[in-house]
Amino acid sequence: xxxxxxxxxVGIGGQGTILASNILGEACLIEGRHVKGAxxxxxxxxxxxxxxxxxxxGLFGPLIPPGQADLLISFDLLEALxxxxxxxxxxxxxxNRHLVLPTSVFTQNLPAPTQDEIILALQKHxxxxxxxxxxxxxxxxxxxxxxxxLGAASPSIPLKPGSLLDAVKSLVxxxxxxxxxxxxxxxxxxxxxx
Amino acid sequence: MGxxxxxxxxxxxxxxxxxxxxxxxxxxxxxSSEVIDVxxxxxxxxxxxxxxxxxxxxxxxxxxxxxxxxxxLCTMKHVGLNVAxxxxxTSAYTGVTAGLVIMSADDPFAHSSQNEQDTRCxxxxxRIPCLDPxxxxxxxxxxxxxxxxxxxxxxxxxxxxxxxxCHSKGDVELSEPVAGLRKGxxxxxxxxxxxxxxxxxxxxxxxxxxxSAIRKRLVEHGFNRYTIxxxxxxxxxxxxxxxxxxxxxxxxxxxxxGAYPIDEDWLGVFIKKHEKILVIEELAPEVEEAVRQVAGCxxxxxxxxxxxxxxxxxxxxxxxxxxxxxxFLKKNPFLQVEPEQNLPSRPPILCAGxxxxxxxxxxxxxxxxxIYPSDIGCYTLGLQxxxxxxxxxxxxxxxxxxxxxxxxxxxxxxxxxxxxxxLHTGIQGLLNAVYNGANITVVxxxxxxxxxxGHQPNPNSGMTASGVxxxxxxxxxxxxxxxxxxxxxxxxxDITGMVTVLQEAKKRKGVxxxxxxxxxxxxxxxxxxxxxxxxxxxxxxxxxGTCVRFGCPAIEFADxxxxxxxxxxxxxxxxxxxxxxxxxxxxxx
Lengths: 194, 589
Known about the structure:
The structure holds 2 protein chains of 2 kinds. Chain A is an alpha/beta fold. Chain A has a single domain (about 5-190), classed as Pyruvate-ferredoxin Oxidoreductase, domain 3 (3-Layer(aba) Sandwich), CATH 3.40.920. Chain A is built from 8 helices and 6 strands. A 6-stranded mixed beta sheet of chain A has the order 2-3-1-4-5-6. In chain A, strand 4 (about 70-75), helix 2 (about 75-80) and strand 5 (about 85-95) form a beta-alpha-beta unit. Chain A is globular, with a radius of gyration of 16 Å. Chain A starts with a strand and ends with a helix. Chain B is an alpha/beta fold. Chain B contains 22 helices and 22 strands. In chain B, helix 1 packs parallel to helix 7, helix 3 (about 55-65) runs parallel beside helix 5 and helix 15 (about 355-365) packs across helix 19 (about 495-505). Chain B is about 35% helix and about 15% strand. Classes of the chains: A alpha/beta, B alpha/beta. Strand 2 (about 35-40) of chain A pairs antiparallel with strand 8 of chain B, so a sheet runs across the interface.
């Protein structure tokens, strides 16, 4: 697909995937590069499975076809597995270890894979697994989880860390800039090791 | 102004400001809502903006503004255009003085809609121009031209972005804002604005006479354009055109359609230069039909002969498939990869602490073997709780309920409708049900906001689109003035109270209305309302599963015990349901 670097960010409605995709878009703008993206709005945001497509240097459509993502960032373990077929051969996954089971599992008593089963299934890809909840706490707020995830993925993203940090600073609420900068750096440090 | 990374709808909103828009109206609907949501929060606003109560009301307001010589924008989703269809068709006869742009956002694949209708067909039907962008930048650039086209031909212009434009993002080149808020002035001209038969026959003729010039101008604007590269060609429109461009092989000609009606002479010249034409477009075969009319003996491949689908949305792999089948690609370059099988799905769900869940629980408890017509809003998710039997369109809960009642089904009928939907098109149904003596119970789920589309205010919210205080309408008084004598308001977090009122309604004949009143839990959180959270005492919990079946995302079940997670908003409904009293507020015994 025409030289774009394709990032798919997935999670559960309400987890802040849209802010993460905005930061990537803003960083592209800072570097004067084209970017295209698509995301989930409307009813699906109510606790449903959500996806944000970002094509860095994208010139055409916003959608990443299955098998064409260079990088998948997942805020939830089960969602990582649900979207794993989007990752291309040799692509990378950066995944939060946290698992939220869909409510239907409890109400309808549906079978669900365990944490270990999911991790095993994900290991056919290059996998960077992290405890984003804990690292966000360490940074100063559980709400900075999305920036931790982005930091952890940043060594694999063809954008300068400075541009990403500037984008973080311009998009998060003013009062939380320090927390989010720390969250990004904690994430990036960890991401560099996996 | 420079380049910004924007959502499609943000870029469209900005383009309206760049066009010096003076008047904005609309009704929220995914994927169109963010245009007005952006316009209504601008601080140094130089235009009037309103959320109207429905799309017909919105369009008639905008039309009147355009008659007064000021530029008007009216936004809605595709199905909203059905509601506004009455003024739409005749507005093409009356015409406009200043620009009127009607944005009707289509939703191929019905990501968040009840159907996949195609707004381009309405433009064809009404005989007005329709602009159909293929990218965010084009959507942005089309808006000023849409206003000038509208003024040049004295006709409303339909602007039809799809979900993949409205909810896509990209780097967009913007221009400087232009101040609007010119003062409108209405010039009386009954032959133009009073469509009695004698006038309308003449107006219809005038409308038809404009068509040929419109077609030519749309080509001159460059919305429809082509490059000739060989003996075969692909013609594509909308987002499909960008997918084709990414895959287009060398030596294949390409025509991009972005505006309707298409000029047949111009189209014919292009087609005659080729030996095979493939048409790729989403939904209705609008382009394909135009192509077939002028193609003569040049073979045309399109959805009418099996190349492409009438439903759903296009994607790069779907377009590659069509191109491969039609012989334009040797092989689909995208791998066929299968998603992981047998994972539990994660559909959207009513929030933890949503008022609707308590109301649905009580309805089901009191009316066990009933029929449950419902409506359009977050509460359509009550389907998962088995309390939504029908949903067609906005306002069709009360009408379907009264229809079933008169059809003679002996079961109880309990319908549910949200406050914004009730004010949109529900009131007429209630009036009709009372007038004609239906036997139904109507539950108005009143959360004081239009929640699903992103929390837009409505006449029930006490605030206008631009944040000005307005008197909150009394739903109780509306229902009573429609002739309903049993109207009770109740807090749906109070299950006992809700059950008692429903039981009372069950005993009575006629139309009964229950207003289940509670703030949307998202609005409550944003307003800083904290109710604490609840916890299950594992020593008391018997693992009976009553709370789990309530279906709240804050309640999980593991090791034969229920557990409450951090999504809990403290509505306390589960504590009322627990048969052994194992659920209590955190910190309390």
